[in-house]
Write a structure and sequence with these properties.
The complex is a heterotrimer. By secondary structure, chain B is of the alpha/beta class. Chain B has seven helices and five strands. In chain B, strand 1, helix 2 and strand 2 form a beta-alpha-beta unit. Chain C is globular and about 35 Å long. Classes of the chains: A alpha+beta, B alpha/beta, C alpha/beta.
Chain lengths: ~350, ~160, ~150
């Protein structure tokens, strides 16, 4: 009996011991695991500590960067303020420029309007002034045609005078209008070969005086810069004057060229005509100023005034030299053209 | 299909002043000579029938060299043309905004009432019967040239 | 009522110009019947009023006319069957682009600007006379119409 109890007790004890050993083993396992975990934790802690150290460094860096940035921002601000000031100044200037521009634009528009009005005025003046002239010439001609048998020489002469004067008045109106238009016209600049132009103008003019012996010599002359139509008018007026005032000569010799006069290059038109008295030279270029009477040489006295105006508008100079019965020379300067 | 050297020159130069639509080569030559001798026309284009005329003024493709040509001052148009007759050409020219302000002078041997009426009704500017005698013909052409190329005024384009 | 055939109609308000033009047309042929109308209204009543006339060989038409201006007269003449084939030549002092454009737009036969100088003016009118009275062939067939008008 005791044996059974003892066997049972020892079995119980053995079972208990086994359980205890299992538990012990389990506990040891747990402790091992725990040790591992603890080691892991320590490692983690260490890593965190490292991170924190690094972080501190970074934070230090960051703070330095922050400070640098703040400095930059301050500088930038200063610059921005300066820029703002500059901008304001610029805006002010632009405003002023704009105001000036608007003023200039208004002035230009006004001038254009005035020019247009003047042009329209001139146009109607020209037509209205000239219309009666046509009637005067026309009816004088009608009288000559229809009443010729009933007119004596004196009558025919009077009618001729009426027609001549009507013609002259028409010419005057034309010249005055040209003269007034010249002051307003835009200059359209091109390169001009004056020698060629003089030759072509001369040929046209001389065709109207086929019976005379007139010679033109064209000397080399540099290119000029100017408004071709206006410069052409200059040559027309100067050359037709030369042709006119050489009429008493058996052979008219006219020359166009280029010469150095008192340190400046100038174009010239020279003729061997009746010339003029130098003491009246100052009057040559005035409007309606003439140095010869109409009975000697026809003309309105506006031709040279037109030349003067054109040359002046081109920034050039115009002057003349002559002597009674020894011909005349008209000089003028123009802006240089490009070298050919 | 362009026919005369003048035409090619004109196309190249662009300054056509006179268009002559004439199928009779003798008349055409005479007219061209007279115009050139009197120096009244710089560029003359010769077209030999109605189709050439319509092709010139209303090309089937592309812009209108003739009509859009700002220098064209006169069209001399014969009525008796092969393929398409002059009346039809006149009708087309006067019906189109772009070409109708160019003066058309009908220059033809016909003096029939019907042709006269049609021509004027369709807006021909003038009708000239070709004189029979050579010297009168030449004089008529010279006078026409002087009138339409010098005295008559055209609108700017 | 004067039923005689009128060859030339001049619509011109300036009496000097009217007379000078008439002289040129009659100088070469005293038989030319010239009628001068001095404003647009007279022109319209001449062509469209009760007065019966053969169509003239040419109408010389100024543009600056009192009452009714030249362009309007031109427009009326060229839009009516009865008058559209009468040659109308505008003879005016205006060289304005717009006037020239308008004239061609309404079917003018020819546009001539009055030269300023008398000699040139006389030459131009002479040339006009020569062209429109001698060279140009007007459409004169009017038999039926004339009968109608004289009845009415």
């Amino acid at each position: 009996m005791e044996e059974t109890q003892t066997i049972t007790e020892s079995r119980y004890l053995r079972e208990r011991l086994a359980t205890l050993e299992e538990t012990q083993r389990a506990t040891l396992n747990i402790l091992e695991d725990f040790d591992e975990e603890k080691a892991k934790l320590q490692r983690l802690q260490q890593a965190t500590m490292n991170l924190l150290e690094d972080f501190d460094e970074e934070r230090g860096n960051f703070q330095r960067v922050q400070k640098a940035t703040l400095n930059l921002l301050e500088d930038m601000n200063e610059e921005r303020v300066k820029l703002g000031d500059t901008q304001n100044a610029l805006m002010n200037i632009l405003e002023d420029v704009e105001v000036e521009r608007v003023k200039a634009e208004q002035a230009r528009a006004l001038m254009e309007a005035v020019n247009r009005e003047l042009e329209a005025f001139s146009y109607s003046v020209s037509h209205d002034l000239r219309a009666p002239l046509r009637a005067i010439s026309g009816f004088a001609q009608a009288v000559v045609e229809d009443y010729a048998p009933r007119l004596d020489d004196e009558g025919k002469r009077f009618l001729g005078l009426i027609q001549d004067n009507a013609h002259r008045m028409g010419q005057l109106i034309d010249d005055l209008l040209t003269f007034s238009r010249l002051g307003r016209q835009q200059i359209v600049e091109t390169q001009i070969d004056l020698g060629l132009l003089a030759q072509s103008v001369f040929e046209e003019l001389v065709a109207q005086a086929p019976k005379r012996r007139i010679e033109l010599k064209v000397q080399p002359a540099p290119l000029a810069r100017g408004d071709k139509a206006m410069v052409r008018q200059v040559l027309v007026n100067l050359l037709s004057n030369a042709i006119k005032f050489t009429r008493p000569r058996a052979e008219a010799i006219i020359e166009f060229g280029y010469v150095q006069e008192s340190g400046q290059g100038a174009y010239y038109v020279k003729d061997n005509g009746v010339g003029f008295d130098m003491q009246y030279a100052a009057k040559l270029f005035g409007v309606f100023q003439r140095l010869h009477s109409v009975s000697e040489f026809e003309g309105t006295g506006v031709g040279l005034a037109i030349v003067f105006r054109i040359i002046t508008r081109h920034g050039g100079r115009l002057w003349a030299r002559g002597a009674v019965d020894k011909g005349a020379m008209f000089f003028f300067t123009l802006p240089e053209g490009e070298a050919s | 299909m362009r026919n005369t050297r003048d035409h090619d020159e004109a196309i190249a130069g662009g300054r056509v002043e006179v268009v002559l639509v004439e199928d009779n080569p003798n008349d055409a030559e005479l007219i061209l000579r007279v115009l050139r001798k009197h120096n009244v026309a710089n560029q003359v284009v010769l077209l030999k029938d109605g189709v050439e005329a319509l092709d010139y003024f209303f090309p089937p493709d592309g812009p209108l060299p003739g009509a859009a040509n700002a220098t064209l001052k006169i069209i001399l148009l014969d009525l008796k043309l092969p393929k398409v007759d002059g009346i039809e050409v006149l009708r087309r020219i006067k019906a189109d905004e772009r070409t109708r302000s160019v003066p058309v002078v009908v220059l033809t041997s016909s003096t029939e009432q019907r042709d006269l009426k049609n021509a004027y009704d369709l807006g021909a500017n003038s009708y000239v019967a070709k004189p029979i005698k050579f010297d009168e013909f030449a004089k008529a052409v010279a006078d026409m040239g002087l009138y339409w190329l010098v005295l008559n005024k055209l609108p700017d384009h | 009522m004067n039923e005689e055939k009128v060859d030339i109609v001049i619509v011109e308000d300036d009496p000097n110009d009217a007379e000078l033009i008439t002289r040129v047309f009659r100088k070469h042929n005293m038989a030319n019947r010239v009628v001068v109308l001095k404003d647009g209204e007279e022109a319209l009543s001449f062509f469209f009023g009760s007065r019966a006339n053969d169509r003239p060989k040419v109408v010389l038409l100024d543009l600056k006319l009192p009452k009714v201006n030249g362009i309007e007269v031109l427009q009326r003449l060229k839009s009516e069957e009865r008058t559209k084939d009468v040659p109308v030549v505008v003879l005016t002092s205006s060289a304005e682009s717009q006037d020239i454009k308008d004239a061609y737009k309404y079917g003018v036969n020819s546009y001539v600007t009055k030269p300023i100088r008398f000699e040139d003016f006389a030459n131009a009118v002479t040339e006009l006379r020569f062209y429109w009275l001698l060279l140009n062939k007007p459409n004169e067939g009017q038999g039926a119409d004339l009968t109608q008008r004289t009845r009415g």
